[in-house]
């Protein structure tokens, strides 16, 4: 066995069939895994969870690789670390359907810092050419747009953190970061 089995792609129709069968209550995760030759019960569990949370969209394969900015990844990791949220809770807060992606970001960050986390996955571009003045102006405009996007993401992060803290309060749980309150976890 190896990582190859985990990366196997399953058809959307199969996922729907498996999830519906689970919801009907006929078979559990392990039995469905065996019946349909799925690599692991936790994968079936994840499909059921994503279906309950996002509907049928939660079972669709993401077209192409989503390209998340460094700031977004750091915000996700920061919220998880500050609040003590699980990978699943953090994924919900940021509308991510794959909690294990966050664990992967954390591993990359711990191994190589934010520089490694910022490295795109895949081949680097072949040629880096010199920019003329017009291209340089365009690049600076893109940088300004990126800064604006970074600020927007920061605001979104703060809104998510605020909502998370409200939920904690609603559930009668204390924020473990507050030194004046006893830890309720």
Provide a quick synopsis of the model.
With 185 residues, the chain is mainly α.
Structural summary, described in words:
The protein is mainly alpha-helical and 185 residues long. The protein has eight helices and no strands. The protein has helices at residues 3-6, 12-24, 29-36, 41-54, 70-83, 87-93, 99-118, 133-170. α5 crosses α6 (87-93) and α5 (70-83) runs parallel beside α8. It starts with a helix and ends in a 15-residue tail after the last helix.
Quickly list its features.
mainly alpha; 8 helices; globular; 185 residues
The helix content, as a percent range, equals 55-70%
- Tally of extended strands? 0
- The structure class reads mainly alpha
Query: Mean pLDDT, as a whole number?
Result: 75
The major β-sheet equals: none
Give unreliable regions as ranges: 1-7
Itemize the secondary structure elements and their pairings:
Blueprint: H1 3-6, H2 12-24, H3 29-36, H4 41-54, H5 70-83, H6 87-93, H7 99-118, H8 133-170
Helix pairs in contact: 2-4, 3-4, 5-6, 5-7, 5-8, 6-7
